[in-house]
Amino acid sequence: DDIYSLPALYDLAFGYRNYEFEARFLIGAHKEHNAIDGLGPNSIIELAAGPARHSMTALKLRPTSAKSAVAIDISKEMAEYNADLVQENLGSGLSGNFQYLIDDMRRFTLREEEEQFHTAWILLGSMSHLKSNDDVINCFRSARKALKTGGTLIVELPHPRETFTMVECTRDTWEVPVEGDAGEDALLTVIWGDDDDDFSPITQIRDFTVSMDLTDVKSGASIQKVQEKVPMRLFTAQEIDAISRCSGFEVAGMYGALDKDVDVHGEEAFRLVCVLRACE
Q1: What is the rounded CA–CA span in Å between residue 136 and residue 234?
Q2: Which of 6, 93, 123, 250 has the smallest number of Cβ neighbours within 10 A?
Q3: So what's the pLDDT on residue 80?
Q4: What does the pLDDT look like over 182-192, one tens digit per residue?
Q5: What are the φ/ψ torsions at residue 39 (nearest 5 degrees)?
Q6: Mean pLDDT in runs of 10 for the chain (280 residues)?
Q7: Cα(3)–Cα(46) distance, rounded to whole angstroms?
Q8: Is the Cβ–Cβ distance between 10 and 24 less than 8 Å?
Q9: What is the pLDDT of residue 169?
Q10: Dist. CA 189–CA 13, nearest whole Å
């Protein structure tokens, strides 16, 4: 098993994210930077969507401009897991406005009538799985084909500060308590990058140690565990700018988090969020 074939564990690991706050930011960033109509997005496509929490949340916000959303991921397990989430999260009133497709973010295809989305999102650092420039350009060009002219592609990545301070790799870890009817029943310990990871300053690829260990609180016994090495590319802002120009986009804005008040240049910035606008 790899981390993406265990979607429930993956979803739990990132359950600390405030999806409502982040979805409102994404809708607001599109509204501010799009050249379609200056309004919020009517249609959303989420690439490398995983459980697709952001696009589903955008549909159920009140108020929201979002009327329809499509999620795309290459993982069959993620698609099956999302099928169980849709009714729970969207209900019968909104589930018909959401679609999940199994496809490759680099060369996804849509029916002709679907190729006019307002905004596309690549979140949670998922673009770091595209390790070559060809892969990134193909992904951006596929997104450009799906978007209206003037629409937005919003990408969330690790902040470049992480790349330029990486003399030695450091461990990034957090814990997620899992509560049942009787209180805290289990604890998920997540490691996303460890001290002995290999990092190439030439390719900018780090072999991330990724570990998720779900343990019983009372006994300390492991309930479910997965660990693997995941090669991921770290990007700079200049690279995003250059690749965007090769792919039919221009950089319209940058933020230091999925938060309009966090300056990408500020000390508090911990993510690189790029808002790219689709050109003629």
Answers
A1: 12
A2: 93
A3: 97
A4: 556 899 999 99
A5: -110, 175
A6: 90 95 98 96 97 97 94 97 94 94 95 82 97 98 96 96 74 88 80 92 94 93 94 97 98 98 96 96
A7: 19
A8: no
A9: 72
A10: 8
Nearest alpha carbon to residue 208 among 188, 191, 190, 187: 191
The span from the CA of 46 to the CA of 59, in Å, is 12
Contact predicate 235/157, CB 8 Å: yes
Q: What per-residue confidence (pLDDT) applies to 197? A: 92
Q: 52, 77, 60: which is closest to 20 by C-alpha?
A: 60
Positive/negative CA dihedral, 113, 119, 120, 121: negative
Residue 128 and residue 14 in contact, taking contact as beta carbons nearer than 8 Å = no
Exposure string for 170-194, b = 16+ CB within 10 A, e = fewer: eeeeeebebeeeeeeebbbbbbbbb
Q: Give the integer Cα–Cα distance in Å for 235 and 275.
A: 15
CA gap 7, 13 in Å, rounded = 10
Handedness of CA 31, 141, 112, 53 (dihedral sign): negative
- State both tokens at 77: 């397990």
